[in-house]
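Please, structure for the following, as tokens.
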Amino acid sequence: MSKIVKDLGYTVFSADEIYKELIKEEDFVKEIYSALDIKTDSFIFDKNLISKKVFNNKELLKKLNQTTHPKIVETMLRESKKHKGLVFNEVPLLFEGEFEYLYDKIIVVVRNLDERISSIVKRDGLSKEEILLRVKNQYNYENITKNEHTFIISNDASEEELA
């Protein structure tokens, strides 16, 4: 969806892209490792280590999110304010982090579980079991209702139909 919005000429900031930049910073990685009680002399981010540690442990996942989400959202909002006009923020864990109050309008793109799993397998090479473990820890988007603040778009069709 963000590609479509970018193609229309709008500025889009991605929480995932900001996170990828932040984990290059030693101080940010130190905060993460400290929150997860990881003892090391190397502060190079180890995605596999973090994933294995948190995705079977809801308490550690919560600590990771409490450590990373505020900095990611703060960075995203700071960068957004530098632009005039309409700006979009792509925030996959918006509701989990309870950041929805920061936004004037929210567009939620939903997709059926089988399609999500298939895409993630292709994109990340994870097994279906690994993906289901992660999905289990995510917000249940079936509970979201459309209102004057929140718009819901179903992404079960082709990209052409979505646009």
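The first strand starts at residue 11 and ends at 14. The chain has a mean pLDDT of 87.
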